[in-house]
Amino acid sequence: MNILKIGSHRELLVDPYLIERFEGASLRLHPPQPQDIAISFDAPWEGLAPGYCTIFQDDKRCRMYYRIMPAGGCADQDPRQLTAYAESADGIHWEKPALGLFEVDG
Length: 106
Description:
Layout: E1 51-58, E2 61-68, E3 82-88, E4 94-95
Antiparallel strand pairs: 1-2, 2-3, 3-4
């Protein structure tokens, strides 16, 4: 077996270059399945389309943290970029609880 040196980089295991052999397996890209919208980013404080969504399971809750920026846009280091939060019991139906940490438009 040859060891492939990739350094300290994280790699998704979807590249045949990173897989030594397929024994009864193959890589497949399945077509998307139309479903309901899981979460809409339409709250007044969310501004432009959010980004950098990170979702993880914490016991029986799914938690999502995502970046928001003002409606006019801004640079990456702009302090007006904030982190927002949503949670779900099933990973399909999401809520954005009012945490009371910041006042919007004030």
